[in-house]
Design brief:
455 residues, alpha/beta, 2 domains, 22% strand, globular, binds 1,4-dihydronicotinamide adenine dinucleotide, binds sulfoacetic acid, Ald_DH/histidinol_DH, oxidoreductase, Aldehyde_DH_dom, Ald_DH_CS_CYS, EC 1.2.1.73
């Protein structure tokens, strides 16, 4: 059977040797989940809520153990990993609370003739077995954004994390069981990618809830046929700085939302559009602050920027910076590499058609783009195939409203960056950034269907 190793991106230590799930293991998981669908029907909403609340408490109890596991597996700094655990706690508590209030509605048939004196009672029902596929970068919070709402809705869940996250995923599932989640309702299964098309197409799988890149999403959509798809994909998220911006706050947002997690967030600030009137002030303040960021060992609390996930990712990011520089871009700071460590980089005058800014660059590099009129910004942002989130620093409500109305994105954050996220807010993009909405209440409905009783 095909095997794989999980390597610590910081020190190249082999954290574990694993075997991909073969057809027999996948079949056994699906058999268990078939029983799990029946068990879910026997659970009351308050019982699901109690299980999820206990899971939230276990995530809090094991916060440090789980954070250290994330740091070891993906190189996320311990500070960022702890933040992820706190977010996963919120996501799980929200799932517990929403499990109690999956409310339907009652409709009067006589809103329109003929008079029939009937009432329609509309309720939500689970889809059945849901395949939840997660990316490497937020192994526990993105998992809980899928597992929590899916379980709360009454589904059985086949959980397929990235191979890089094997140990943290196993530990999460152990805690789900410890919280009282019946094993038949949640099965962890990590087949190799070539086996995924068959699993996606399996008739028992009623929905695929996926977070990851566009390439994988296209393969899933091709294999899925008539199934519910919830796709949370990449982003090329802009931060816009207007002349009346609070420059210090804008610099802090740019740094926190691009250089934390080594920039490996789909909602990370990928491009900063700075109005000419404040460009020099913003750039100088950004570069001065960026140069002070601690880069290195992700297990140290003082480290702000840890390694990216692997050498291929570091190669791609460095290569895109080199490409931009070869085409006339100007380096303001950074562009230094040691192994998987990439120093936070600020780069200017990047051609608008450079790969660095056209594709989603998943690393600690921040291109600055000067502008005179908002028309330029709207045109450049909407020219991207992505449309996830955006942020703008301004005090002018007219600018906020114009950008909210004209930018093709799922969320505009004012006086904050595109990395703004509250676990209970609707989350998701438009165009190549995906379809559907996560955010606990919305994800529950995405993984359910409406059933109506006429009485
Ligand atoms: N919109 C969002 O909320 C987020 C989007 N992302 C995106 O994910 C990417 C980075 O994460 P990665 O883990 O490298 O993404 P990835 O797309 O390589 O992998 C994501 C998951 O899909 C699985 N997978 C890969 N190919 C597949 C296939 N053909 N069929 C079924 N499953 C497949 C992987 O094993 C993994 O579990 C970036 O593009 C980033 O923008 C990452 C985090 C959040
Ligand atoms: O912050 C998060 O929710 C993860 S991501 O930004 O969607 O990658």
């Amino acid at each position: 059977m095909a095997s794989y190793s999980v390597i610590n991106p910081w020190n190249d230590e082999c954290l574990g040797e694993y075997v991909y799930a073969d057809a027999g293991a996948v079949s056994a998981s699906l058999d268990a989940l078939r029983r799990g669908e029946l068990i879910q029907r026997s659970l009351a909403a308050h019982e699901r809520a109690d299980i999820l609340r206990r899971l939230a408490e276990l995530l809090k109890t094991h916060r440090e153990e789980l954070a250290m596991l994330i740091t070891a597996e993906i190189g996320k700094t311990i500070s960022d990993a702890r933040v992820e655990l706190d977010r996963a706690f919120n996501t799980t508590i929200a799932s517990a609370e929403e499990a109690r209030q999956i409310a339907g509605e009652a409709l009067d048939s006589d809103a329109y003739p003929p008079t029939r004196e009937r009432i329609g009672v509309v309720v939500w029902r689970p889809l059945g077995t849901v395949l939840c596929i997660t990316p490497f970068n937020f192994p526990l919070n993105i998992a809980m954004h899928k597992l929590g709402p899916a379980f709360a809705a009454g589904n059985a869940v086949l959980f397929k994390p990235g191979p890089q996250n094997t140990a943290s995923a196993r530990r999460l599932v152990e805690l789900c069981y410890e919280a009282g989640m019946p094993p038949e309702t949640l099965q962890l299964c990590i087949p190799d990618v070539p086996a995924m098309a068959e699993l996606v197409a399996h008739p028992q799988i009623k929905a695929i809830n996926f977070t990851g890149g566009t390439a994988a999403a296209n393969a899933i959509a091709k294999a899925a046929g008539f199934k519910k798809l919830l796709l949370e994909l990449g982003g090329n998220d802009p931060l816009i700085i207007m002349p009346d911006a609070d420059i210090d706050a804008a610099v802090a947002a740019a740094i926190n939302q691009r250089f934390a997690t080594a920039g490996q967030r789909c909602t990370a600030t990928k491009r900063v559009f700075v109005h000419r009137e404040v460009y020099a002030r913003f750039r100088d303040a950004l570069v001065e602050k960026t140069r002070t960021l601690a880069v290195g060992d992700p297990t140290l609390e003082t480290t702000f920027v840890g390694p990216v996930i692997h050498a291929a990712a570091a190669d791609e990011i460095s290569g895109r910076i080199e490409d931009a520089l070869s085409r006339g871009a100007v380096l303001a700071c950074g562009h230094k590499r040691e192994g998987n460590l990439l120093w936070p980089t600020v780069i200017e005058e990047v051609p608008d058609d450079a790969t660095l800014v056209v594709e989603e660059t998943f690393g600690p590099v921040l291109p600055l783009r000067q502008f005179d009129h908002l028309d330029e910004v709207v045109e450049l942002v909407n020219a991207s195939p992505f449309g996830l989130q955006a942020g703008v620093f301004t005090q002018d409500i007219r600018v906020m409203r114009r950008l909210f109305d004209e930018l093709e994105v799922g969320l505009l954050a004012t006086n904050d960056g595109p990395g703004f996220r509250a676990e209970h807010f609707p989350f998701g993009g438009v165009k190549d950034s995906g379809i559907g909405r996560e955010g606990v209440k919305y994800a529950i409905r995405e993984m359910s269907y409406q059933k109506t009783l006429v009485i």
